[in-house]
Amino acid sequence: MAPVQRIDGKAFAARMTTRIADEVRSLFDEAGLKPGLAVVLVGHDPASQVYVGAKHKATIAAGMKSFEHRLPAETSEDVLLGLIAQLNADPNVHGILVQLPLPAHLDASAVIAAIDPSKNVDGFHVVNAGQLATGQDALVPCTPLGCLFLLQDHLGDLSGLHAVIVGRSNIVGKPMAQLLLGANCTVTIAHSGSRDLPALCRTADILIAAVGRPEMIRGDWIKPGATVIDVGINRIPDGDSTRLVGDVAFAEAGHAGAITPVPGGVGPMTIACLLQNTLTAFRRKLPAKA
Ligand code: NDP
Description:
Blueprint: E1 5-6, H1 9-31, E2 36-42, H2 46-61, E3 65-71, H3 77-89, E4 95-98, H4 108-113, H5 126-133, H6 142-155, E5 162-166, H7 173-182, E6 186-190, H8 197-201, E7 206-209, E8 227-230, E9 234-238, E10 241-245, E11 258-259, H9 266-285
Parallel strand pairs: 1-11, 2-3, 2-4, 5-6, 5-7, 7-8, 8-11
Antiparallel strand pairs: 9-10
Helix pairs in contact: 1-9, 2-9, 6-7, 6-9
The protein binds NADPH dihydro-nicotinamide-adenine-dinucleotide phosphate (NDP).
């Protein structure tokens, strides 16, 4: 049997970022304007600090303006909403991302609802979710958008393929389902209430794992030749240290057609798609050409 093909999200994301940087440069030459991304971090969650740092670096590398707002953990909702109102009104800011999770005293839904949908580059606002669900032009959540790009790059036309998505969160599972429906897949969404998950997974031409449980999806749940996208990022103990694994038992997936590794698969695509969404939001604000 041919060895399983690794879908290299890191390389794909690097190519995407180069293309975005080229576009940013030529738009600056044409219009004298640069896209700006504001990222708001409340508190000191270590993983969030790493993500926010990575987003800042990527934004600068793409030639965009990066505005970082690091607020103390005890920030009140009024203060946070005040900052969002200021960013909504700022013409230099085209994208706004509030890093989740927020400290428990803050209502994430209210905070996301306060962001101008045209600047909501993580695509979590109900306006963007509704536009995606109804097939309108939306800012699409970055992680599932990255998964779609990888699938289309690897498989080409997805029409008629059966996609099984394990996980129904608002940030991954549900928007992933909408995107795959839009690409003419037949879509099944599985969750913690689904019956006989292994059998369901074995029917998948495309298997998306977005569960948050280390290596839950075993090799014998995967149909031979299937394309597997592992969204999971789980840190597990490894001797005296720790290591990252996905939601799929990678070592058992030798009979899959292709699989994204963890790390180096979906993760890098999320930031590349954030830059893509910021560029899209910026383009929509450019004055129409005469
Ligand atoms: P959530 O916890 O919000 O959702 C997990 C989903 O998995 C839920 O729908 C849940 O079902 C389902 N689930 C949990 N246990 C089982 C089970 N035993 N059987 C079947 N379904 C189950 O997670 P997210 O969607 O936010 O994230 C999923 C994973 O993706 C995590 O590992 C996260 O770290 C990673 N992630 C990676 C990103 C990246 O950039 N690569 C970005 C975002 C997330 P139910 O609804 O019934 O509870």
